[in-house]
Amino acid sequence: MSVTIKFGTDGWRGIIAQDFTFDNVRACSQAVADYMKQAGLAQRGLIIGYDNRFASEDFASAATEVVAASGIKVYLCPKSTPTPAISYGILAKKTGGAIVITASHNPAIWNGFKFKTKDGASASSEVTTKIEKRISYTLTSGKISHMPLSKALDQGMVEYLDLAPIYTKQLAKLIDLEQLRQARLKVIVDPMYGAGAGYFPMLLGRGAIQLVEINGERNPLFPGIQPEPIAANLAKLSALVKKQKADVGLATDGDADRLGIVDEKGEFLTQLQVFALLCLYLLEVRGERGAMVRTLTSTTMVDRLGEIFKVPVYETPVGFKYVAPIMMEKNALIGGEESGGYGFRGHMPERDGILAGIYFLDFMLKTGKTPSQLTDYLYRQVGPHYYQRRDFTFPEGKRQTITKRVSNSLPQSIEGVKVIKVNTIDGFHLTLADTSWLLIRFSGTEPVLRIYAESDRPARVERLLELGKELARV
Fold it and tell me: How far apart are CA 146 and CA 152, in angstroms?
């Protein structure tokens, strides 16, 4: 069965054995190798890493055999490695980029193929379009290079590279890890069976801080959850935080580039709250200044903080491939998105769920406040903001019908409040005069319609979500 391989907001993803096959991974790898040659990057080499999903290490080996046979040296991760460690590894080793075998937060039946550029960032649409054309050619021609991994190792075309020490050294430059190790905090960590397992204990263990890790073993079935750090998947973490009277719960997604936080009461902090809190931490506690970048699915609390601290805020479509260029151009302090991905200046223009979690712990330590107290403190400055997202699966053939239906029925006001702006750069984003907003958009990585809303009252958020559902008729 022929497959059209298209890169979404961050890479290509497919169902294992149906779409995500060894043949298709080899075709993608050949296309990346060809792109690197055309871009003059082949001599810099390429990192290849992978997550804990089913056969990820085998898909990574297949990719390695293709790239090495194409004359490009490969630095192959010897074990499951967080995507942010791989992304930083690009900068540390000055490679031409990286291939990461991961489907991030998708369900267990999926796997994926990400390409990170020489900047350590998600590949732009311009780059992925070039790669997609090469994939199409490769699938049609069947011309794929191959060299057995053992031979590539013997010839020096492949070198195993453990990125954990390089990544740890980088984080130690950004934050006083030893001070955090001595913090009188109890932290429960949930890597959600993903590549982030063991990283918080490795970085912060051997001190006064108490770290308890759950779901740290490899289980490609992700039993009972989808490895996305949102409330629906963090019931176990929430219950354990309450039971053990922990100070906070931290969760990372399947490849550890996203963060979810549970407060000391076992309540999930929304990704929008966390993003605003991280902005406040950088601006107030660390005293840093610089532009902030957010996707249109993220919170207007960031805009309010921008006004308070007199720093600019830039809005982009969904996906860090849009956030990263602005971060680099403006030397931005932070970039963030609704999915729980946050990137930081001085590190790389890419998401890092592990560093975000460490920064949040430092916020708690420096202020002496619990997560719920930090949220209250934030609200005293920017006003209360509540948020929810609802996801609906739909038949792929209905995409155009839903789009047309929503486009033809957009309201001019909602509950008497005027719609002052309609943004269609990524779905339909309606901004109301009271700064509440509603967004209807399709996921860029799976057949899901997402409806988002933020307002000053939970009940109003619910009503906005219901209106979005009515407009889309899902």
Answer: 10
